[in-house]
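2024-03-11 09:14:02 INFO receiving multi-entity request
2024-03-11 09:14:02 INFO entity count = four
2024-03-11 09:14:03 INFO echoing inputs for audit
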Amino acid sequence: MLRDGKETTSSSELGRLLGFTDAQVRKDLAHFGHFGHPGIGYRCDELAVAIRKILGTDRQWRVALVGVGNLGRALLGYRGFVQHGFRILAAFDADSTLVGSTIGDVTVHDLGQLDEVLAQQRIELALIAVPAERAQEMTDRVIAAGVEGIVNFAPVTLTVPQGVSKVGVDLARELEQVTFALANRLSDEQA
Amino acid sequence: MLRDGKETTSSSELGRLLGFTDAQVRKDLAHFGHFGHPGIGYRCDELAVAIRKILGTDRQWRVALVGVGNLGRALLGYRGFVQHGFRILAAFDADSTLVGSTIGDVTVHDLGQLDEVLAQQRIELALIAVPAERAQEMTDRVIAAGVEGIVNFAPVTLTVPQGVSKVGVDLARELEQVTFALANRLSDEQA
DNA sequence: TCGTGTGAAGTGATTCACAGCG
DNA sequence: CGCTGTGAATCACTTCACACGA
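2024-03-11 09:21:47 INFO inference complete, emitting structure
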């Protein structure tokens, strides 16, 4: 909407676009504050700022990538991260033939330097893209080095201490969501 | 559990492992049928079979990849798909220098051959890994060619007709989930 | 005795509907 | 007059608690 120069929107328009009711949109937004203008709706620019504040993306975040395989490289090349304020500042891999190379503008470090580089770069978030067997170990190490948020791409459930935030992305599980819907022919549901 | 040779489990054990209550586990499983044995619990092998049936992964699915960029290549190399019965049988890209090459054992076809190859290979599911601008167009085309399920990696909301199942994976949104938790210091929630 | 499956109770989320502001 | 923000009503989900089978 901002790109299109749209000034304002409404809960009903947002709802239609997102697949919710207008009341749902208003309740959800009102939960975080008073962003709307009665009789007018929501100003697009104000709303964008407010949502960024809520999501914590009103600033830049310092990110590291652990595991520079196929998926890791894809993550390094993903432009969406930069657009949302996520800066990948360091990468790590066990493969010594990769160590020292730069992909995009990120240098691949040896795992032995992990603690040192994470501290030096003041890394806050880590993307775990290593094989399932190594995922918990890597997670423990980055958390010990001060990382507070984890996105885990390995198909295992990680254990993290209180205060550390964690999200798991299991690509096969996403496909299972589709096959579940097809196997049971659900006509509703969308994401 | 199967790998460890475990014979049976219980709703409370599953709940502890997954982060739910025992009652929740029982209700959810009972929703789909009677899989447990009173006094015993759930037999691991029986439960695995039952869950695969529910998820629709008790058979192989024929999958195509549209877009062989960094992310596409990562998806091609992801072993978890094969393990869950998802076979990527064809890939497509607009880049003519890629067309004709094989990555893993999948051939990259020209987009012009999309309809033909999808029909010939009887493709059921498609992974959309093209830039946001092209995502809806590619989706329309694969659906026209008979695809019934879509996993979309482009950061746009796709429109699909009734009967087609769709899941969206937005990598930046996963990170935002982490920053949201950190910005608001939620102590609960895990995925 | 252990542990499932399940009505009943309790809790939380969504929708309704309208007062009030621009 | 349009649209938000919000109590009240509705609806859905989770937890409780127990009958019953192994």
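2024-03-11 09:21:48 INFO post-check: The two ends of chain A are 20 Å apart (CA to CA).
2024-03-11 09:21:48 INFO post-check: The mean pLDDT of chain A is 94.
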